[in-house]
Automatic annotation (TrEMBL):
<comment type="similarity">
    <text>Belongs to the DedA family.</text>
</comment>
<protein>
    <submittedName>
        <fullName>Membrane protein DedA, SNARE-associated domain</fullName>
    </submittedName>
</protein>
<dbReference type="Pfam" id="PF09335">
    <property type="entry name" value="VTT_dom"/>
</dbReference>
<feature type="transmembrane region" description="Helical">
    <location>
        <begin position="139"/>
        <end position="164"/>
    </location>
</feature>
<feature type="transmembrane region" description="Helical">
    <location>
        <begin position="16"/>
        <end position="34"/>
    </location>
</feature>
<feature type="transmembrane region" description="Helical">
    <location>
        <begin position="54"/>
        <end position="76"/>
    </location>
</feature>
<feature type="domain" description="VTT">
    <location>
        <begin position="34"/>
        <end position="159"/>
    </location>
</feature>
<dbReference type="GO" id="GO:0005886">
    <property type="term" value="C:plasma membrane"/>
</dbReference>
<keyword id="KW-0472">Membrane</keyword>
<dbReference type="InterPro" id="IPR051311">
    <property type="entry name" value="DedA_domain"/>
</dbReference>
<keyword id="KW-1003">Cell membrane</keyword>
<dbReference type="InterPro" id="IPR032816">
    <property type="entry name" value="VTT_dom"/>
</dbReference>
<keyword id="KW-1133">Transmembrane helix</keyword>
<keyword id="KW-0812">Transmembrane</keyword>
<feature type="transmembrane region" description="Helical">
    <location>
        <begin position="170"/>
        <end position="190"/>
    </location>
</feature>
């Protein structure tokens, strides 16, 4: 398996670093075990010392994440019709499917933006939008905003750590990763509270 963090650190002063950022953020969009956040944070930390360009770090990460988010969505659209055939009208599974489709139609932007900050959540959300036939135009718009926000936040978190602790790179990286975990946890808490406040979904049963 590729050690993405070590690879990024070995290329920190090379233009190839941006290709690594594109690749790791692309793969992390549908392979949750790929650690994109630490890699982006490291690139952000080194931007504080001028070894990387923070604008290019954000741009490369956004591009990779955006293209990556198209993969589960496309897979969902591909298999969505087959799934629908297995959910006859009138069943509770079909009711759950239709409820989720309505929820995405009403709050798709909120779902896609918040789950982008949650490693497994981002994959489940993008796949689900494809499965329920979420409109491509709206999906592209929301995902473009979500990936740009996530990329800027992740890279600038590292950059802030690098500015505060320029003499201690390891501490800067640790602070950046810590901030990322705190904000991710906060976003997940807000998402769960909002979900509890929404109308209850149809009960999941086995037909």
């Amino acid at each position: 398996m590729i050690d993405w963090l070590r690879l990024a650190e070995s290329l920190i002063s090379s233009p190839w670093l941006y290709a690594v950022l594109i690749a790791v953020s692309f793969l992390d969009s549908f392979l949750p075990l790929i650690p994109s956040e630490p890699v982006v944070i490291v690139a952000g930390v080194h931007a504080a010392t001028g070894q990387t360009d923070i604008v290019l770090v954000i741009a490369a990460t956004t591009l990779g994440a955006f293209l990556g988010d198209m993969v589960p969505y496309s897979a969902g659209r591909l298999f969505g019709a087959r799934l629908l055939q297995r959910l006859p009208p009138g069943t509770k599974r079909r009711a759950a499917h239709d409820w989720f489709a309505r929820e995405l139609d009403a709050r798709g932007g909120f779902v896609l933006v918040t789950t982008r900050f949650i490693p497994v959540g981002r994959y489940l959300a993008t796949l689900s939008t494809g499965l329920v036939g979420f409109p491509l135009r709206k999906y592209v718009l929301f995902v473009a905003f979500a990936t740009a926000s996530w990329s800027a936040y992740t890279a600038l978190t590292g950059y802030l750590g690098g500015v505060l602790f320029q003499e201690n790179t390891l501490l800067a990286i640790a602070v950046g990763v810590g901030l990322a975990f705190v904000v991710t946890g906060f976003i997940e808490a807000v998402r769960r509270l909002r979900h509890k406040g929404d109308a209850a979904a149809p009960d999941a049963v086995t037909d």
